[in-house]
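Structure first, sequence second, as always.
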């Protein structure tokens, strides 16, 4: 049974990225994966600065994040788009997790893993510009990113209020299939 770590690039409690991710996670679980959902709010980190690492050491939350990533066979990642890219806090978490320390080598918690990526936006482009940046970042670290990706435009119209229930059945089907596609890819490894 493939082990998947699912996380969103948004730190907002009820973000659309987290709600969209929940639907894809459902599809991955139905396809037979063991899925753990990680919230980046549980791993607060300072802005990465090598000088701080040299003077203060590697933060415990960075180690914890690396441990969680290292246990997974693959990743299901959902991100909003901030200024045509990924959010800065999300990128900072990735930067910390990619660093070498006394437990892990550079990129080792990412290398040779497989990922499925999703973006969402209230606008009509659905965060598609940020997906290109995310794909580039992940590929640089040795992650195989599925060729298919899902971009959810007009996401605010697809949920009833602050709840997690997606009301757009067509997109719900698409997201669940995307989660299942990651499971299928991991099962072939």
């Amino acid at each position: 049974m493939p082990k998947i770590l699912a996380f969103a690039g948004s730190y907002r409690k009820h973000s659309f990225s987290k709600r969209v991710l929940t639907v894809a996670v459902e599809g991955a679980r139905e396809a037979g994966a063991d899925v753990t959902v990680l919230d980046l709010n549980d791993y607060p980190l300072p802005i990465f600065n090598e000088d701080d690492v040299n003077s203060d050491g590697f933060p415990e939350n960075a180690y914890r994040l690396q441990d969680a990533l290292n246990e997974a066979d693959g990743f299901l990642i959902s991100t909003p788009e901030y200024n045509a890219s990924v959010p800065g806090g999300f990128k900072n978490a990735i930067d910390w997790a990619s660093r070498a320390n006394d437990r892990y080598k550079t990129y080792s918690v990412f290398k040779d893993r497989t990922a499925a990526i999703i973006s969402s936006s209230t606008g009509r482009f659905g965060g598609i510009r940020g997906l290109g940046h995310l794909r580039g970042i992940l590929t640089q670290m040795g992650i195989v990113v599925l060729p298919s990706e899902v971009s959810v435009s007009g996401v605010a119209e697809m949920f009833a209020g602050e709840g997690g229930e997606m009301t757009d059945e067509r997109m719900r089907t698409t997201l669940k299939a995307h989660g299942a596609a990651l499971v299928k890819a991991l099962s072939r490894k």
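Margin note: The chain has a mean pLDDT of 95.
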